[in-house]
Design brief:
five-stranded antiparallel beta sheet, 18% strand, 11 helices, kinase, Phosphorylase Kinase, domain 1, phosphotransferase activity, alcohol group as acceptor, Aminoglycoside/hydroxyurea antibiotic resistance kinase, three-stranded mixed beta sheet, transferase, 10 strands, 2 domains, alpha+beta
């Protein structure tokens, strides 16, 4: 008998545990292996088998998804060890709407999803990561790691982040990585996937939207687009406009710090930071 790999073993056990009948590999991501599975040959579902290095963060996100109970997010049916058994979403990512010139429609969809995710619920998960901890890379990066001409952008964004953390806000469970390509269409509407499981300021939830979707750098850097998003989130979610723009700038700088750590280009972040900071100054 050929020895099974750890992922094959986990898949076999999951198929038996949840009485699944057929599995098809769909994707391998940096954090997991994803399979589409069948239940009784009728309904599709998804199995997510976590990689060891990402298991803690992914389990935290799965706990938050269970807490959402299918409101604004994909439903998790059950978890066991490092395997997550969840709803299969058969649609397209919201990023596709933006790429087809439906950016404002996409912004409305994001606001709707956030409204559902932020609905008050009892007994929030206890293992959520404080937002301040998530920002460690921003505060610990040496400014000299940034391109010489962009160090003022880093300094400004860093200062804004400190100011935001110093000014108290509500502390609620956050998806923590909400952007267009982490929102998928389904028979139940647009649903979020892959949360990080954070605890912090509600206005941070939309920060990552400003530099997304991937491949839309020119759009993301457009001051009119920045204003449209800020207007949308203020009007539909009641978020403080200055905090929204502040978090967007701080998050863009944090993203750049993560990319610098892996010697990856920070083209998008360098493009969006100047107009974000300018918009922040105007409020």
């Amino acid at each position: 008998m050929v020895n099974q790999s750890p992922v094959e073993t986990a898949l076999s056990r999951a198929m038996i545990r949840w009485s699944l009948t057929k599995s098809t590999p769909v994707a391998e991501t940096p954090t997991s292996w994803i399979f589409r599975v069948e239940q009784n040959g009728r309904n599709f579902a998804a199995l997510k088998i976590l990689k060891p290095l990402a298991a803690e963060e992914e389990r935290r996100g799965a706990g938050l998804m269970q807490w959402y109970a299918g409101e604004g997010a994909a439903t998790i049916f059950d978890t066991h060890g490092d395997t997550i058994f969840m709803e299969w979403l058969n649609g397209i990512p919201l990023g596709d709407a933006v790429r087809k010139d439906r950016d404002e429609e996409a912004a409305i969809a994001i606001a709707t999803v956030v409204g559902q995710l932020h609905r008050p619920r009892p007994e929030a998960p206890e293992d959520l990561m404080p937002l301040r901890e998530r920002f460690e890379a921003l505060f610990e990066t040496d400014v000299k790691a940034w391109p010489h001409t962009a160090r003022d952008l880093y300094a400004r964004a860093n200062g804004i982040a400190i100011k935001l953390f110093d000014k108290p806000s509500a502390q609620i469970p956050l998806h923590g990585d909400l952007h267009h390509d982490n929102i998928i269409s389904s028979d139940r509407g647009w649903l979020a996937i892959d949360p990080k499981g954070l605890l912090g300021d509600p206005a941070y939830e939309v920060a990552n939207v400003f530099q997304n979707p991937a491949g839309s750098t020119k759009l993301a850097a457009d001051p009119k687009r920045i204003a449209m998003l800020a207007d949308m989130f203020e009007a539909r979610l009641g978020f403080n406009r200055k905090r929204v723009l502040g978090w967007a700038a701080a998050h863009a700088a944090l993203s750049a710090c993560w990319l610098i750590e892996t010697d990856s280009p920070i083209t998008t972040q360098l493009a969006v930071l100047p107009p974000l900071l300018a918009a922040y100054d105007l409020v």
